[in-house]
Amino acid sequence: MIKDTAAGYGLISKAFHWGMALLIGWQILKFGDRIAEGEHWVGQVLVPWHVSIGVLLLALIVLRTFWTISQRRNRPPQNGTTGIFATAGHGLLYVLLILQPITGILVMLGGGYGLDAFGVQLIAEGDKIGWAASLGSLHSPLAWGLSALVVGHITMALVHQFVVRDGTLKRMA
Q: What is the pTM for the complete model shown?
């Protein structure tokens, strides 16, 4: 099944979810760059891809948002208080997943670095832009917030699987 149904998520939703989960996990490893000034495998192998993966994630979250809106009537129901919290949590995840790469781009533009993704120059280097640098300074705090939401998301998926036993995880697996 490609589209979502009341019984479970379709192939496209699952591909977005798990593909983005892997990429977000990769991005979160950027925190390791703060250890020993990046002089280890994380800093040398994964971090150089941080901007490119961020640009890719921005494109994916935009596409995923449109897909989610198109599938909202087909999706498994979210009922009661738990459903309200799940909807709010997912909404916050979407907001931070959009803001995170945007603020990252603002860091690059604000510093006058330009923007390259996967070896392709998207925006040329230029003058520093104060307002972009200022808004870009939210990138790191948002990363901590997004990381906390991701941990909460994973925790709740495991609670639903092993405590509540309502099949929530199975619908996305």
A: 0.91
